[in-house]
Amino acid sequence: QRPYQLQDGIVGGSADPEAELTKIITFIQDQVIVPIDERLPGRPFEYDLHSFPFVPMVLVIGNHSSGKSTFINSLLGVSTQETGVAPTDDGFTVLERWQTDSTEDGPTVLGCPENRPFRELQRFGQAFSGHFRRKRKLLADNA
Q: What's the pTM value of the predicted model, to 2 decimals?
């Protein structure tokens, strides 16, 4: 038996899905992640727990010219990624909802203390950081 059961109404749409998801994430944090963090030396998840419930990350990968950027642009409702018949990008882009539009290069993102979730990527060196960037975008509420 599962330790947490989804409410019956969530499937039919009568419940508040955001509140239900927050309950699930809080349960996972309190019952799974915190006990693991307390047992590990240095409490590696302690900083991340302050941002729970967290914003999930989604990775979109595929062959060149397979529609990844077109999919992302359609999903966001704005043209944020270049598209074309030939390959248009050979890097990794983190997209974040933000108050204003801005773009940061890889070394800036990886070197800034506020970007702790990306710090582990420094180990891949300059070859990676040169192909990494973050775009912060002002997006519509429904994007």
A: 0.61
